[in-house]
Amino acid sequence: MESGAVLPVMALVPFIGALLPALMIRAGRNACALTTGAVTLLAFVMLMTMAPAVFRGEVLQAELSWLPALGLSASFFLDGLGFLFAGMILGVGLLIILYARFYLSGDDPMGQFYTYLLLFQGAMLGIVISDNILLLLVFWELTSLSSFLLIGYWKHLPEGRQGARMALAVTGAGGLAMIAGMLILGDIAGSYNLTDILQQGEAIRASEWYFPALILILLGAFTKSAQFPFHFWLPHAMAAPTPVSAYLHSATMVKAGVFLLARMWPVLAGTPEWFYIVATTGLITMVLGAFIALFKDDLKALLAFSTVSHLGLLTLLLGLGTKFGVVAAIFHIINHLTFKAALFMSAGIVDHETHTRDIKRLGGLRKLMPVTAVIACLAALSMAGIPLFNGFLSKEMMLEAAARTEWYENPLIVPVLATVGALLSVAYSFRFIVHTFFGPVRDDYPAKPHDPSFGMWAAPAFLVFLVILIGVFPKVVAPLVAVASDAAFGGGKAPYYSLKIWHGFTPALYMSVAAVVGGLVLLALHRPLDWLWNAIPRPEAKAIFEWLLDRIVRACRRVAELTHDGAISRYLAIFAASTVALGALAWSGGGMPMATRDLLPVTPVAIMGWVLLVTATLYLLTIHHNRFRALVVISIVGLMVSGGFVYLSAPDLALTQISVETVTILLLLLALHFLPKDTPRESTMPVRLRDGAIAVASGGTVAALAYAFMLRDVSVISDFHLANSYKGGGGTNVVNVILVDFRGYDTYGEIIVLGIAGLTIYAVMDALLNGAASRRLRNFEFAPDRSKDRHPLMMVVATRFLLPITAMVGVYMFLRGHNQPGGGFVAGLIVSIGLLMQYMASGFAWAQQRQKIGYHSMIGLGVVIAGLTGAGAWLAGRPFLTSDFGYVNLPPIEEFELATAALFDLGVFLAVLGAVMLTLYSLSRIARYAGSTVNPEAMDYDPSRRRARTPKEAL
Amino acid sequence: MEMLVASAVGVLTAGGVYLMLRLRAFPVILGLALLSYAVNVFLFSSGRLAVGLPPVLNKYAETAYSDPLPQALVLTAIVISFGMTAVLVMIALGSFLESAEDEVNIDPNRPEVDEDEDAPQATGAP
Q: Are B12 and A700 within 8 A, CB to CB?
């Protein structure tokens, strides 16, 4: 096992590179294409550096562990099979990038195209070099997603969007099945690493879960590789730009399914189930695809069905379960890639130059586009399986393999059907050649055809060069075929095979001759057959698919409408009732230990608090229709809760609760200003009784739970905090030390959440004031008995006095927080109450004028300070948010402590202050829109101004 | 003492759930506020009750302390529940100002609000 440290880097290169084209397009189309090409070339060169090791038969591995305990790691490996596919993905990728540069018109967003292409390339590359099957699944889904973007690239075409959606639905559904299958496989093998799974073929085949896993994995592979009955998405995906079709639908994505079959071959193949499912599917797909291709008039549709047919051929070969079949499949993968990509590109050139892909409108292009004609014809001859072209060699191997195969003890079915498939393949290949390029020159092409520039035909020409090279000297790819097929059947003795043109008079040769002759006869009869094809009704896959989709959507909608009818009260009632029911169920299971703690004595003070709290709550329920009174009553509840915290030795909580209480009530008061002042009595008696029953049940169970919990001892981790608070955190207020030190990460997250809440409120308010609500606000009618003196003198003066005092209390609370009750949270709330009072007393405009620091920036500053303090620990080589402290002795003051935790607390303080103020600021800003005059001065009746004005008024 | 705290939590929960099931936004917000009191006290009580125990470390003597961990958790919970209440209030206010209704349920019989209500005015503006 060799180290392949470069593998993860190679897998990442296309993903990181995907950012570049979108930027480089600003420098022009050539720069964009060149950058994309450079990214792919970089990955290709990385791959080639590993070629010598792969050809020596070594397996390169690299692992980045993430959660090794759960078997989750990003592990990669490269063997012959992976090397072959990676080479195809990157090599063809380069050719496609070149071709697309000339194919895309100036109106197409090229940067987007290349970004999608690189994303897709990275996903494909990931599939073929992943070792961990979970990682493979991630890449598998990524190919579905990125191919969706590519197929739907021409967003303005409905066919493009529909095709993309269909491809995503079919391959995505298959991908889901495959996830289940892979998980089963990993469970049987006890490892999620392919290299381990591949060693356990026998155990897996013997497992009782083998069959379900096989079916699920095959669903994934068959949908991806467009096997019958999932073949229908591929032709519809042809709405994509031709470079996409050439890349995805000849060389890469559809081969992912075949790759998976080959990859899993040592584990899953060799059983009758495998043979009958895989080989039969392949056989049907091969014949059916070829048959339909013969009658397609659209050049790309013809090629699409031909691809379906050839994928069927590959599936058949892998399904045979023989090593010879695997060799033939690997060889045909290479050959199919070369001729089919060249054919797609040629079809694209024809489309590009004549503005049609309809065979019935073409013909005679041989004279007008000689270069394209030569390229396309040579590639099509290879597709037909004519000697001296590479398609012939692998087709012979397929026929030879088929000739030796018995299907259900019948030796004829497979060879005959294989010959029929080859025959049809000859027919449609020659149709492609004859009906497009031969025949008389027409005068009604939609555009005047001529050969494109060199850049556009260079890529297909290179591929055709390979077609002939392999066709004449098959030995050039022999090492690649050998190393890839070796990897595919997982070692062991290779079967006898020889890549050469002349094998003697074998059955395969007779079958081949029959196919060519029969194919040509069929082509001669094409006109009447085509008439017959169009005359006979046949099921249309797209219609069936859409019907099915429509049914599913309708069923989902019915379920959603039934359960989700917009009545949130009903959902909440169901939620509360079912929570109680679940709790009761859990309790009825028993297993509750005996109470171990004694009750604390009840004191009169406690009883008084309890009575106040319970009375206030019950009273609230009876008068909640009067909203102002309800607010007063609920503040009693809050006050009692704070008092309870004081009584139960939690001063920090009491401080926080009482300040939050104040802020909340102010907030609700501000909101109530614009809301109706009364709640109408709407619920009927039965509904109220139902809600009451649910409420009593919830309250009763929660009380029982709390009671049971308080009387039992459980092991707690607080002793650790108590023991280490002073030693490790440098503070005697353990609650504060927990907040800023032990659980600093939580607190950091919490201030961010609070900041987000503040910003959300600001955004909602902003959207409101720009929408219909602002018109409503401008015409807002306030109660006629509203006070005329809304900013009374007494209050203005009192709050001005209070501001510095509040600020000082805030600072005091903040500074002592580490050692005494207090801290950033409380200090932030106290200071915001002080500021808030200015808004209430002196009016929004006056207070806002004097507000120098924006609340948004205060939130941001707080989070940044807290984050930087945490990150500062890195400088000392400690983990994030490790705090440090020391004691300083300045002569006039007592010894005091400096802790980084205080800096963190400052961040908390600022974030809390900013969030609270932003919230209330947003609410009060609404008032400015609400038709009320905004007071420019602090007081409505200012005695000092009044005196100054009096003499003038007297005049 | 435990009995008092447990029953207070129960009453707060019951009141909160009842108000939460009302049909207007304002009582629902009040109900959620009651529920947050209940939840906070419940969480706090999971540290067991302690009357008269020092919450702050004493440098000079070994004593028992109240459990600090639930207190720290509840402290942040109080602040966060303020944030949640504030967002809810804003949403309720927004929906009232937009539609002049403060019902929480969508009436299935009411015709859907025309999304393009503002469109003519928006295009009319310069």
A: no
For residue A258, name the pLDDT band (cuts at 50, 70, 90).
very high
Check: CB of residue A755 under 8 Å from CB of residue A842: no
> Domains of chain B: which residue ranges?
2-51+66-106
Does A745 have pLDDT greater than 90?
no
- pLDDT at residue A893, rounded to an integer: 61
Contact A15, A58 (CB under 8 A): no
Distance in angstroms (rounded) separating the CA atoms of residues B116 and B122: 10
CB contact under 8 A, B105 and A699: no
Confidence band for A930, pLDDT divided at 50, 70 and 90: low
- Would you call A63 helix, strand, or coil by DSSP? strand
Under 8 Å between Cβ of A406 and A414: yes
The DSSP 8-state label assigned to residue A713 in this structure reads -
Q: What fold characterizes domain B2-51+66-106?
A: Helix Hairpins (1.10.287)
How far is Cα A916 from Cα A808, in angstroms, rounded to an integer? 19
Rounded CA separation B68/B78 (Å): 15
Q: Which of residues 57-76 of B touch A (CB under 8 A)?
A: 57-59, 65-69, 71-72, 74-76
Q: For A845-860, how does the pLDDT look when each residue is reduced to its tens digit (9 = 90+)?
A: 777 777 777 888 899 9
Report how far residue A863's alpha carbon sits from residue A865's, in angstroms, rounded to the nearest whole number.
6
ipTM score for this prediction: 0.87
Closest CA to A119 of A15, A46, A29: A15
On the CB side of A695, CA atoms within 13 Å amount to 27
CA distance B32 to chain A (A): 12
- The vertex-A668 CA angle with A665 and A673, nearest 5°, equals 130
> ∠ at Cα A893 (A890, A896), nearest 5°?
70
Residue-level pLDDT at A331: 92
- More confident: A787 or A15: A15
- Residues in chain A closer than 8 A to B72 (CB atoms): 735, 738-739, 743
